[in-house]
Design goal:
homodimer, 308 residues, alpha/beta, Rossmann fold, 13 helices, 38% helix, globular
Chain lengths: 308, 308
């Protein structure tokens, strides 16, 4: 049994590669839910959906999120009601959000909902998508333009405001969802996906019970840096790290994870950081981490598996 | 000020004609909400939407309901979740339902919601679409295949089951929505649209205060029969009337309304019923009531206005 921690597009790409090379081995994916947002009364869980869509082969590969071939007539129509339309919801995609909202209103937990959505999309039986917590949490960003939901910062404001603080609202009431701690304690290895350390992995580590389980587990913990040549291929990891006064480097990410990390995987372009990470007492693997297609994601996943 | 009572497609067609010939005169439309249904967590109000869509010029004229040029990708996508898909919701149309559901969850009344939706679609300022009540009611049909929501009988079961009883659930708790009684008392004329007398007009008349207001008002009350040659042009009026042991005729509809009715408008094909209606002490108008296009609807509306 393998367990992974991850957020959105980068994690989804890596997990697709991983799922191609693990055969029938059980893979548990603990997914960030700090990105969750309620818009127009709909419960949206972007990271959970991005991972399910990718792993069930229906993702829009060009965008990295949403459903392949989706249309946007609903979103256009929403404009006349003065509702927010900056968050891109496709016409097929909205069925997922309506299903989630419907189940949530009937008392189903995030875990139960993710499991049903995964099943509806035909996700392989050996893969479990586990929201990090069943409690409602939301990641908010304090910026020079005020405080806003992370999605607003990312999508509406296109990452332009300067970040000074990141807060996961209600995280102190959030305990790990069923199966999460178990899947960390009993895995043969834990893989921290190439996701944003602040906004994707950060909230997961703040959930009660998860960091402790990572520290205690006998499994090897391997993290893949989302940085290539010191910058993220996508998303605001560098802006967020800089905004919080952190050095933007894979070594810095290793430091954030050092309490529980065994091995850090970094890109060839960042080979010069290798020594700094070794100096933290960690093992390293320096490989090509750019997942420009499915095959390259599978090769990266294979290299990671060889570490175990 | 004119006031109309109506249900779905037939009423909408007539009201479109009426709106074309009244200039800037205020028109209040009291709309049946017994057809309302909650599906997949969405609050849907078919008659209210059909009338707003028609009167704001965005209706799918071929179908008589929904939005012109709409797509159905959402509905197709819903299938994978095992949710009911027999109710046709277009991708643009769903924005209306999400807006309604969102406002309802925030405590807005059906009246407030209809007013906002009408405004969003640019409905003319002199037309008010008034849901008959702000209370949640639902029309259920007892049939030889069991009891079911009217929409299920109409859309899913295609009006095939034999009807034995019609019940508007929670109607005894429903009082007239704000403005409804007032618009009956103070109108210069009341027009009962060519709608199903059992399923569209019936629920309106059962709302506390409405039948009394119709009996008391000094305004002339004119009803247009939905039957042409003894059968409805659309919908199950004949099946429902027969199922309830009623004669299927315009004279029978006049009898159902006789407590408050002054004038009955019937189709040329039903001229033989004229005497039976006159015998009830009512005035009659025998004209072509088939509204095959906008112009014919306007001509019918003009004929009705001439009665006042």
């Amino acid at each position: 049994m393998l367990t992974a921690l991850g957020g959105g597009v980068g994690a989804a790409k890596f997990l697709e590669g991983l799922s191609n090379v693990i055969g029938n081995e059980q893979l548990n994916v603990i997914v960030n839910t700090g990105d969750d947002i309620k818009l127009g009364g709909l419960n949206i869980s972007p990271d959970v959906d991005t991972i399910i869509y990718r792993l069930s082969g229906v993702v829009d590969r060009k965008k990295g999120w949403g459903l392949e071939g989706d249309t946007f007539n609903f979103l256009n129509s929403l404009k006349r009601f003065g509702l927010e339309t900056w968050f891109n919801i496709g016409d097929q995609d909205i069925a997922t959000h309506i299903y989630r909202t419907h189940l949530k209103s009937k008392g189903f937990s995030a875990t139960q909902i993710a499991s049903r959505i995964a099943k509806a999309f035909g996700l392989a039986d050996n893969i479990s998508v586990l929201p990090m917590t069943d409690h409602d949490v939301e990641t908010w960003i304090q910026t020079n333009e005020g405080e806003m939901h992370f999605q607003e910062y990312l999508v509406k404001k296109k990452m332009k405001p300067e970040v000074c603080r990141v807060t996961v609202r209600d995280i102190d009431q959030a305990s790990a969802a069923p199966g999460v701690v178990d899947s960390i304690e009993n895995a043969r290895a834990i893989i921290v996906c190439p996701s944003n350390p602040i906004i994707s992995i950060g909230p997961i580590l703040q959930v009660k019970g998860i960091r402790d389980a990572l520290k205690k587990t006998k499994a090897q913990v391997i993290a893949i840096s989302p940085l290539v040549g010191g910058v993220p291929l996508k998303g605001p990891a560098d802006r967020l790290m800089r905004g919080l006064g952190l050095e933007v480097s894979s070594a810095q990410i290793a430091r954030l994870y050092s309490e529980f990390l065994d091995t850090m995987v970094i890109d060839l372009e960042d080979a010069h950081e290798n020594q700094a990470i070794v100096d933290l007492g960690l093992k390293t693997l320096v490989v090509d981490t750019v997942m420009s297609d499915k095959e390259k994601a599978s090769i990266l996943a294979s290299s990671v598996l060889e570490l175990i």
